[in-house]
């Protein structure tokens, strides 16, 4: 296979895009009955910081490592879900990073792997995140994360970005020991909010996540920040946009 050199910027974009095996085309949807919104963590936290940390630590092979790591991370999480197993995000992320480094013949110590996995708990906000969350809270909507990230990671990132006053306690897949797109993961929303799924909007970063949430029965906004292609399987999400405007429209704001 022919390989092409990448600029640092292109490498980061490709590494980040590995986090988003995409979905669907935009479609308007009525949303007057939405009373709560469940967010994938990466719709609010800027996951590009993970790829940037990898490239900073390993300048020569960082882009390739970041891409391979994200692909293997999702592959392992889906494998565990399909097999009815659950190791938790940190363990899967560490295993995926070790495998990816070995596949690239790159020496990465246990301490280096730990530091890179920890970046997931230190992600900054996307620029539009706080204004949108504040607008939603003023409108009376209930908000919470519903994420494959571990509970400690979500809590740390929420504290660091001062989101505790805007969002309810996070719904980590640690609660049900099943990564998304397991229906058990999406079912945390109705259980935690005490609302039927029809009254809950789901805000997805990855196309696969938007598809899984839509299959579960949520009205879903896909925040396609990286402009990746749509998933080939139906149905489409209710709304698609490159920013959180789709979530506002889903909520009728």
Description of the molecule:
The chain has 253 residues and is of the alpha/beta class. It has two domains: 156 residues, 3-Layer(aba) Sandwich (Rossmann fold); 74 residues, Orthogonal Bundle (DNA polymerase, domain 1), CATH 1.10.150. 46% of the residues lie in helices and 10% in strands. It has twelve helices and six strands. The chain has a six-stranded parallel beta sheet. Helix 8 links the parallel strand 2 and strand 3. Helix 4 packs across helix 5 and helix 5 packs across helix 6. It is globular.
Named at the architecture level, the CATH assignment of the largest domain is 3-Layer(aba) Sandwich
Whole-number radius of gyration?
17 Å
- Distance between the first and last residues' Cα: 48 Å
Counting helices, strands and paired strands, the structural category is alpha/beta
**Fourth-tier CATH superfamily name of the largest domain:** HAD superfamily/HAD-like
The CATH topology of the largest domain is Rossmann fold
Total strand segments: 6
Give the rounded overall mean pLDDT. Answer: 90
What's the number of domains?
2
Major β-sheet annotation = 6 strands, parallel
The quaternary state of the protein chains shown equals single chain
The strand line-up of the biggest sheet is 3-2-1-4-5-6
Number of helices: 12
Low-confidence regions = 1-31
Helix content: 40-55%
How do the SSEs run, as a string of H and E? HEHHHHHHEHEHHEHEEH
Strand content: 5-15%
Q: What's the CATH first level of the largest domain?
A: Alpha Beta
The outline comes out as globular
Catalytic activity: an (S)-2-haloacid + H2O = a (2R)-2-hydroxycarboxylate + a halide anion + H(+)
Protein name: (S)-2-haloacid dehalogenase
Keywords: Hydrolase, Signal
Function: Catalyzes the hydrolytic dehalogenation of small (S)-2-haloalkanoic acids to yield the corresponding (R)-2-hydroxyalkanoic acids.
């Amino acid at each position: 296979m022919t390989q092409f050199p990448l600029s640092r910027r292109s490498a980061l974009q490709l590494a980040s895009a590995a986090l988003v095996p995409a979905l669907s085309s935009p479609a308007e949807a009525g949303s007057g009955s939405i009373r709560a919104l469940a967010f994938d963590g990466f719709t609010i936290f800027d996951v590009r910081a993970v790829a940037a940390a990898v490239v900073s630590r390993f300048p020569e092979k960082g882009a390739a490592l970041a891409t391979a790591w994200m692909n293997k991370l999702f592959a392992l999480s889906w494998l565990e879900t399909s097999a009815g197993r659950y190791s938790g995000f940190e363990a899967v992320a560490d295993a995926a990073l070790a495998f990816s480094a070995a596949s690239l013949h790159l020496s990465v110590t246990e301490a280096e792997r730990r530091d890179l996995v920890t970046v997931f708990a230190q992600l900054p906000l996307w620029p539009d995140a706080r204004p949108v969350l504040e607008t939603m809270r003023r409108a009376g909507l209930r908000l919470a994360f519903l994420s494959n990230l571990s509970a400690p990671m979500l809590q740390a990132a929420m504290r660091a970005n001062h989101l505790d006053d805007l969002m309810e306690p996070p719904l980590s897949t640690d609660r049900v020991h099943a990564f998304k797109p397991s229906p058990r993961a999406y079912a945390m929303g109705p259980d935690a909010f005490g609302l039927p799924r029809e009254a809950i909007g789901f805000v997805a970063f990855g196309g696969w996540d938007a598809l899984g949430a839509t299959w579960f029965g949520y009205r879903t906004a896909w925040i396609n920040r990286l402009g990746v292609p749509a998933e080939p399987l139906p149905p489409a999400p209710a709304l698609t946009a490159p920013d959180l405007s789709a979530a506002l429209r889903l909520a009728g704001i």
